[in-house]
Amino acid sequence: MIVGIDLGTTNSLIAVWENGAARLIPNSLGEVLTPSCVSVDEDGSILVGRAARERLQTHPLQSAGAFKRHMGSDKITRLGKHSFRPEELSALILRSLKADAEAALGQPVHEAIITVPAYFSDAQRKATRAAGQLAGLKVERLLNEPTAAALAYGIHQRDSETRFLVFDLGGGTFDVSVLDLFEQVMEVRASAGDNFLGGEDFVGMLVDRFFDQHKLAPHFRSDAHFMQRLRAQAEGAKRSLSEAPKASIRISHEGSDYAMELDEAELEKICAPLLKRLRDPVERALRDANLKSAELDNIVLAGGATRMPAVRRMVARMFGRFPSCDINPDEVVALGAAVQAGLKARDAALDEVVMTDVAPYSLGIDTSMQLGADAYSYGHFDPIIERNCVVPVSRVKRYFPLRDNQPALEINVFQGESRMAADNIKLGQLMVKLAGGKAEDNGVDVRFTYDVNGLLQVEATILKTSQAVTLLIEGNPGMLSEQEIAERFAALSELKIHPRDRMEWRALLARGERMYQQLRGRLREQLGMQIARFEQALETQDKRQFVPAGRAFQEMLDQIEHQDFIHHAAEHDE
Amino acid sequence: MSEQETEHDSATEVPNFLVRLGLDESADARTIRRAYARLLKQIDQESQADVFQDLRAAYEVALQWADHQVWLAQQTTAEQAAKQLAPAQDAPLAVSDEAAAPLTLEQDPALAADPDLLSWEAFERFTAAASMLTQGRMLRDQSLWQDAITRELDDERLVNVTARTIFEARVVHLLSGGWQLGHDTLFAAACTVFGWATERRRLAQFGYAGSVVNRAIDERHMFEVQPDGEREMHQKILGRLTRTDPPDADQLRRDMFYLEQMLARFPTLMGLTVDPARVEQWRAMHKLVEKKQGKPVQIDDLPEPVLEQSSSSKLPVGLIIMGLLMLVRLLSGLSSDPAPSARRIEPRIAEQIAADPSFGKPVRLGMDPDYAPLLTALEKKEGAGQAARNVMPTPSGLTKSQLDEIGARIDYKRPASAGPAKLRAEFDVQLSLSGAVAKITRIQGSGDAGFDEAVEDAIGKSKPFPPATARKLRLYYTAEYKRRPNKAERRAEINAARDEAPARTAAPEAAQ
Which candidate from B200, B217, B226 shows the least CB-CB separation from A375? Predict the structure, then answer.
């Protein structure tokens, strides 16, 4: 059974193609969105999802979130007595989703299509595949997120001819893709994006503003508890403003209360610099696709952050019309991944649709230009594969050494759009030994082969001898070898994961603890007592006891939060 | 990848890319897409990567071919189109947008506004600000010029993507038109603000004007990486060129060598950023100085400065439009005798230059020396009056496609008896307020009256130009008529090429 997984910065989802449609699979809490958070519990067991997210506030040193941003790097996160690489944290999410799917489908799940931002680098893609492997999933195909969104969309319009732009603003990344659907062929014309722009950054701006407004001392930022609570408040306010006209951020710390009221217009002003950054990738994608905005039939929104009215307004003004958001932007990528999973499994209903994708960035080497008799200009980037050419692709170019009898030709592989190689990202290096002789007799053919998954193979062939040297872009920092993956897989499998069937209660408890931390006075005492009672009920391991206790506890929590809101609202009107 | 040149005088063979798609020459864009889709579904992209690439290459070329067929068909019905008197729907820079859905929920005026209008207004504001900046110290202050551009880009009224693109296009066209007071600072400022120097292909969307600016950027980089001694000398001369007082005779004698060196090495860059009148002044003075002293001019074995080779026309309002070598194809009535035919001269691509044995060095990027004569902006006709101008002219707004359109309409069959020739006809064109062609004056004939007439005719049949186009234009068109070599001669040519330059076979290809 193949599934489709959206491994997001803030939330992850899993879906499957069934009976001619894509369907989202709920987790053990009955929700389709699983927060991309991991936490280590008091007893050393691993929590994934909502419970971990709550614990991000109450136990920030044992919890981690938004680790997608570290994929492709070597960053180690310490949680309790465990240390995890980003791939491993992602793998824990994937394992949890895999378990959810197996529970829902009643059969083992061995393979998955995982989505990545179109702009993800080689190293980041490899890390994502490694995460899949570490979760016991075969990942043959990675899918670009905007392409997935387009698939979810395009399938509904299977027999039409349409050109559209996907505007995907998620928790941590921003992706723009321009797609062409005709004769059931989905063609990506261009892709652009910003790997460091997402909903989390909007929250960050609110936090910064909060600090400014209250002139909070900088050392508050090193207080992990405080920061997590503040971020959660800011996140809450940001979300409320998508539906309500006003919201507030309230927090107390070391005896003082701080509050900030804001409305939607205020939010837009605070986040103006971020909104501005949305323009550049859009313009670039249109440029590369060689399309004018008027030639687009549709603008499609994906990613939770596109719920923000400020973002929607910006999109409307950029294109001079309103975007479509028929499909829930949080879910659209996962649904698209399920479509691709169905395609991979060769489901009969989907036999018709074929996709092509493009290389998201240019790939080339650095070369020299001759200025005068002995003057050279070094370090110019010469592309071999241009950005936005259809993949899989293989291109070859011929190069010559600068001087006669040069012992070797140094081929440095770069990725990027700048004229000068130094401004691009270096991927690897290939040394080609030359046989000696005149420079013009010593040509070397350099071939770049780029496959559908964004993996690059470089082959240099010496013309004189027909010998070839190959380089598979490996050796990136943060790369795990096959053996390391096997070792870590074993280690992860030995971790104690919190039992699925108890997740609902564990999450409830975590929520209660989080609220306890936020309250004061009598309400806090009352809640404290209820938490203790519920914990006791759980310890009996007797369903007849803890299930009703759990329901009652949940009701109480809901009531407190509701009351709290009323309490705040009342203060508002005064 | 098959070459773009296809000779249509041979028997009609179905091009191989169409064969690959299972089509014949009746194919259009739609049938090509359908064929591609059908074949694509039969391939597994992952395991049959080379089959896929082969199919994809055929598809891309086929689409280009189909585009070309459409263009050809349009030319034969061009006469009917020219009869229209309604103003052109196209925006001056061939980018237009229509506001789509009417406003429903939010009354945001920016949603309904026409992006072309928005960009035009923004550009007017910018040029007004820029004209202020041509005074005194501000002329050299790059940050002020950058601010002037950024102010418009940050303005609430320029959020629409199309409007921003058109705005950038206007700046590109302004610069590519050639030197005006302040353009050296504007060039640097615009490069920084728009990131043209760092993002390699950003200028590609602006057609010919974009390629001119792109070339200038490449040249500027080459300028920067020169050995210190040469670069400093060049920079000093650039400084002296900006002064209005005439140069000292001895200094001039020393400087002239380096000036000509710069003009030869960086023609496009110099064309955009240096006052041509000043260069002419120096040259005139230098000739006098040399004459007085009775010494021959001391410019070693530098190639002749590209200025003298060909002249371009500078528009009275300061924008240069380049005529291109036009393809004039004899469609019917080809005789089997060596009939004169004109062939389009394609610029040599960078890889072919790299394979040139005289260099034998790694691939060179960017500059194509063959382009240099066409690109020079330093012309000698307009006098010193231009130099004193301190108001930014509005660009003429004429696009390459409009030029091409006129060129494609030139319908002239040169009689075989006339023999081979290189022709060039230059005209002053005056437009009425509505943009229609009001008056055409021949400035310089080609020597072939029939050709001149054909060009004049083609210009006259133009649709009215968009209101933003300048009132006065100067256009020229050239054509080359060669004797088409017969089979024996052709074979000799090929053999000669093979013997001459063995390294040419080593030209890098973009292999499939």
Answer: B226
Are β-strands A111-116 and A2-7 bridged in parallel, bridged antiparallel, or unpaired? parallel
A344 is catalytic: no
Which pLDDT score is estimated for A222?
A: 84
In this predicted model, what pLDDT tens digit does every residue of B240-249 receive, in sequence order?
888 888 888 8
- Cβ contact (<8 Å) for A320 and B99? yes
d(C-alpha B223, C-alpha B266), whole Å: 8
A23 shares contact with chain B (CB less than 8 Å): no
Other C-beta atoms lying within 10 Å of the C-beta of residue B391: 12
Hey, which bits of B299-398 come out as E strands?
A: 340-341
Residue of A nearest to B358 (CA): A440
A185·B200 Cβ contact <8 A: no
What three-state secondary structure class fits A324?
strand
Provide the phi-psi class of A456: left if phi over 0, else alpha when psi is between -120 and 50, else beta. Answer: beta
Q: Are A169 and A297 in contact (CB under 8 A)?
A: no
Please give the Cα distance from A44 to A504 (Å, whole number): 18
Whole-angstrom distance, CA of residue B341 vs CA of residue B416: 9
Q: How far apart are CA B451 and CA B415, in angstroms?
A: 11
For chain B, give the mean pLDDT: 68
Full DSSP string of B424-449: EEEEEEEE-TTS-EEEEEEEE--S-H
The confidence band for B352, taking pLDDT boundaries of 50, 70 and 90, is: very low
Q: How confident is the model at residue B326 (pLDDT cuts 50, 70, 90)?
A: very low
Using a CB-CB distance cutoff of 8 angstroms, which residues of chain B are in contact with residue A380?
365
Tell me which chain A residue has its CA closest to the CA of residue B163. A318
Task: Please say whether the beta carbons of A85 and A66 come within 8 A.
Answer: no
- What phi, psi does A98 have (nearest 5°)? -60, -45
Q: Go through A320-355 and write b for each residue having 16 or more CB atoms within 10 A of its CB, e for each that does not.
A: bbbbebebbbbbbbbbbbbbbbbbbeebeebeebbb
The one catalytic residue in A41, A88, A168, A357 is A168
Q: How confident is the model at residue B370 (pLDDT cuts 50, 70, 90)?
A: very low
Report CB contact under 8 Å: A321, B162: no
* Non-local CB neighbours of A340 within 8 Å, separated by 6+ positions: A4, A113, A141, A143, A148, A151, A355
Q: pLDDT band for position A196 (50/70/90)?
A: confident
Cβ pair B233, B261 in contact under 8 A: no
Strand, helix or coil for residue A453:
coil
Closest to A411 in 3D by CA, of A473, A482, A322, A503: A473
The tokens of B235 are what? 């920079």
Q: Are A413 and A453 in contact (CB under 8 A)?
A: no
With beta carbons under 8 A apart, name residues in chain B contacting A386.
201
Nearest to A280 by CA among B197, B195, B91: B195
Instruction: Read off the pLDDT of residues B126-142 as tens digits, 9 standing for 90 and up.
Output: 999 998 888 888 888 89
Question: Rounded CA gap, B409 and B411, in Å?
Answer: 6
Which of B46, B115, B221 has the CB atom closest to A452's CB atom? B46
Which ipTM did the prediction report?
A: 0.71
Residue B124 main-chain phi, psi, to 5 deg: -60, -45
E strand spans, A371-465: 376-385, 390-391, 393-399, 408-415, 425-433, 444-450, 456-462
Chain A residue with minimum CA distance to B360: A440
Distance from CA of B203 to the nearest CA of A (A): 10
- Phi-psi group of A363: left, alpha or beta (phi > 0 → left; psi -120 to 50 → alpha; rest → beta): beta
CA distance A237 to A394: 49
Q: Among partner residues A288, A293, A377, which is closest to B222 by beta-carbon distance?
A: A377
Contacts (Cβ under 8 Å, ≥6 apart) of A463: A398, A442, A443, A444, A445, B506
Residue A572 has pLDDT above 60, yes or no: no
